[in-house]
Amino acid sequence: MRTPSILAIALLSLAAASSVHAAGKDPAAICAEAEERYVALTGQPSSEADGVVVVTMYKYNFCPAQITVQVGTTVRWVNVDKRTSHSVLSPAAGMPESDRAFPDESVEFTFLTPGDQDYLCGPHWETRDMIGMVTVKE
């Protein structure tokens, strides 16, 4: 595992990189596919999840990659990929790396500290730029 200072470098390189990922597809198109898979899995849109904010993990992307929540909000990352496992960690939020979430599994974390808090997929942030951001408001 790399140190959090490497995370800052990775975020800068991500910001400078092209916005096209995963076989040349636009992140918006990937996230639309991810939402379709989420609905097929749960029977409802991610916006209707009870008591949590949902972020899907699909084709090495977090969907959406940036969210804003209130202090005390639980975020649930749901893996809607068919074959790949992902983890989630956020050194800025004090979140250690989660167990791997295999297809159709999820990981949750409650954000208690205000501010911008980067998070990433442990096995895929460096090779696939799988990085996201939660802005936590009071």
Automatic annotation (TrEMBL):
Keyword RNA-binding belongs to the record: no
InterPro entries given in the database record: BlueCu_1, Cupredoxin, ET_Amicyanin
Pfam families in alphabetical order: Copper-bind
Keyword Signal in annotation: yes
Keywords: Copper, Metal-binding, Signal
Residues spanning the signal sequence: 1-22
Segments forming domain Blue (type 1) copper: 56-137
PANTHER family per the UniProt record, alphabetical: BLL1555 PROTEIN (PTHR36507)
Protein name, per record: Copper-binding protein
